[in-house]
Specification:
75% of the residues lie in helices and 2% in strands. The protein is an all-alpha fold and 273 residues long.
């Protein structure tokens, strides 16, 4: 891997890092190019192998598909995992399983780096508060930029050096691994996406019967070789039918009840008119 390629990957890794504001905040950064699927495409374009990049991105994305970032807490730094694991797997001529094997430990390391960076950056909001109390707008801007400089140094240089210096190491590592280890990595790479989907289902399934919809989608894909696009349209149709069947009656019940009035006659009897 050329140094300019490693540096470009490091730049995208920084732009996709959590708490970086340049791409519409976390919308275009952490939840945009910071996702492994987008990282695989970007790394594939930079390294000249888009197919391998996308395949590695899909495999790594499947592991973290159920991960959320509540309150800024990062269970696993999928950004660092993607921008180190995917390019190293591409240059080593490896498969998606190799990208997964590299991404898992790197993601755990990224959590430690993220927590360290956020802890160190805690000094800048207090400095910005003092500048705001003093009416120093320039001081507020400097405090914000100082926080970003720390995050840039942490993400850009680590990813750049890991990609530039780690290519030969990755090639030698996978060449030295026994076949049994490669087989176990392949098995683990196929099991971890199932865990990711299970976490995602645990978040979105509100009633037990909804699991039947997931099973139905799996049966349709495996039996009829449907594409993802076709399955999306089938899911939209089923969702529309479900919503109309469940809520169409309730929409007309309100006006009907409001139109009905209860009256009391002279003998104290009640009747509805």
């Amino acid at each position: 891997m050329e140094f300019w390629q490693a540096a470009l990957i490091g730049l995208f890794a920084y732009l996709g890092r959590n708490q970086v504001p340049w791409l519409c905040g976390t919308t275009g950064g952490w939840y945009g190019i910071g996702r492994p699927l987008m990282a695989g495409l970007i790394c594939g374009v930079i390294l000249g192998d888009v197919t391998a990049g996308v395949l590695c991105g899909v495999a790594v994305q499947a592991i973290f598909i159920g991960q959320i970032t509540p309150g800024g807490a990062v269970p696993s730094d999928l950004n660092l995992a993607a921008y180190i694991g995917i390019p190293l797997a591409i240059v080593a001529g490896g498969s998606a399983e190799m990208a997964v094997a590299l991404a898992i430990p790197v993601g755990a390391l990224g959590v430690a780096l993220h927590n360290f960076t956020m802890t160190f950056n805690a000094i800048w909001p207090h400095r910005a508060d003092k500048c705001a109390a003093a009416g120093d707008a320039r001081g507020i801007r400097v405090a914000n930029l100082c926080g970003q400089l720390i995050e840039f140094g942490e993400r850009f240089f680590i990813v750049t050096l890991a990609c530039y210096l780690g290519a030969g190491f990755a090639e030698g590592l996978f060449a030295a691994l026994p076949d049994v280890v490669i087989s176990w990595l392949a098995i683990g790479g196929k099991m971890l996406p199932a865990l990711g989907f299970a976490i995602l289902l645990n978040q979105i399934v509100q009633e037990e019967w909804m699991i039947a919809l997931f099973v139905l989608g799996w049966v349709l894909v495996s039996s009829f070789s449907l594409t993802t696009t076709s399955l999306v349209f089938i899911a939209l149709a089923l969702a529309l039918i479900y919503v109309m069947a469940r809520y169409s009656g309730k929409a007309t019940a309100g006006p009907a009840l409001e139109a009905a009035a209860v009256y009391e006659d002279e003998e104290g009897n009640y009747e509805e008119r």
